[in-house]
Amino acid sequence: MTDSAAPAPGTVPPTWLGTRVLPTTAAGYGEIRPTPKELRNRRFTLPDTVPMLPGDGFASRITSPAPADVIARSTWVPGCPVDASDLAWVRLTFRGFDGARHTGELLVNASAAGDLVTAFRDLYRARFPIEEMRITTRAELDAPPTGDGNNTGVFNCRPKAGQTSGFSQHAYGLAVDINPFQNPYVKGSLVLPELASAYLDRSDVRPGMILADGPVVRAFARNGWGWGGSWHTLKDLQHFSQDGT
Question: Structural domain tally of the chain?
Answer without folding.
Answer: 1
